[in-house]
Amino acid sequence: MPDLLKTLAVIQHTSAEYLGLIEDHLEGRRIRFRYFRPFTAGGRLPRQGEIGDGLVLLGGGPWGVAEGASRLPWLEGEIELAAHALAAPTPLLGFGLGAQILALAGGGGAAPAPLGLEVGTARRTAEDALGGLLPATYPLVRYGRDEVALPGSARVLARDERGGWALFQLGARAYGFAGHPGVKSAIIEDLIMEFAEAPPHPASALAQLRSEQAQIAAALVPIMAGLTRVLGLMPQGPR
C-alpha cells in the first residue's frame, strides 16, 4: 500500500518559534511535519526533493529579510527554495519572516523597519479567502522587523488595523501571514529570552497576548480548515 499521509517540510529560523497550536491541527488530520533548522550547527535547508507535500516558513524573531546574509546566511537558498515551490506549485505557507521570504520569492521588495511586537486584529477583505473559511476578524500577533512590498501578482485577503496586509495569496497554493496564526504566548516569551535584542517595552503586548490566547485558538479552527482545503492537504484513503 502506498503511503497516503501528507508530510510538510517546516523551516525554523530560531529555536523558540515552531508551529505552536498548528501542530495539533496537523496531527488531528494525519498530516506529518518535519522540522529543518539551518541556524544550528550542522543544520540545513530541505532539498527540493525533501519538501514533500508542502513547505512552511516560520518567523525569525529579531531577524529580517532586509539585512540579508548578514544575519541569515542561508536566505538566498531559502528564497530559491520558495521560488521552486511557487513554480511547482507546491503548497507553501509563510508566517512573519517566512511571509517576507515568500514575497521576495514572488518578486517583491524589502525595506528596513525596527523590531516590534504588536497584538491587534486582522480583517478579511475577500469573502472567498481560504475557501470562504477565513474569519471576518481574527487576532494578529506580529513579532519581527522589516517590511516587504508585495509582488504585483499577490492578492491581499486580510488587512491590519492600519490598512497594511495581514494575509496574502500568491499563485494557486501559497499564502503569507503577517503573524503566526497558531502562536502561543510562550513562543514570544522564549523569543525575547533567546536573543539579546528584544522589542521595546514588551510587557503590555505580552499581557494582551495572554488574554487573547483563547481567541487565537478559536480563530485557528476555521483558518486550518480553510488552509487544508485550499492547499489540498487532507489525506485520502481509509483511516
Mind explaining what this structure looks like?
The radius of gyration is 17 Å and the shape is globular. The chain contains 7 helices and 11 strands. It has a single domain (about 5-230), classed as Rossmann fold (3-Layer(aba) Sandwich). By secondary structure, the chain is of the alpha/beta class.
What features would you highlight for this structure?
globular; nine-stranded mixed beta sheet; single chain; Rossmann fold; two-stranded antiparallel ribbon; 239 residues
Task: Going across the biggest sheet, name each strand in turn.
Answer: 2-1-3-4-11-10-9-6-7
Radius of gyration: 17 Å
Shape designation: globular
**Tally of strands:** 11
Helix content: 25-40%
Tell me the count of domains.
1
As residue ranges, the low-confidence spans are none
In whole angstroms, how far apart are the ends? 13 Å
Write down the CATH class. Answer: Alpha Beta
Question: Mean of the pLDDT scores?
Answer: 94
Compact description:
The protein is an alpha/beta fold. Helices cover about 30% and strands about 25% of the residues.
Helix-strand blueprint:
Layout: E1 6-11, H1 22-28, E2 31-36, E3 55-57, H2 75-87, E4 92-95, H3 97-105, E5 109-111, E6 116-124, H4 129-132, E7 137-144, E8 147-149, E9 155-159, E10 165-169, E11 174-177, H5 185-194, H6 203-211, H7 213-230
Parallel strand pairs: 1-2, 1-3, 3-4, 4-11
Antiparallel strand pairs: 5-8, 6-7, 6-9, 9-10, 10-11
Helix pairs in contact: 2-3
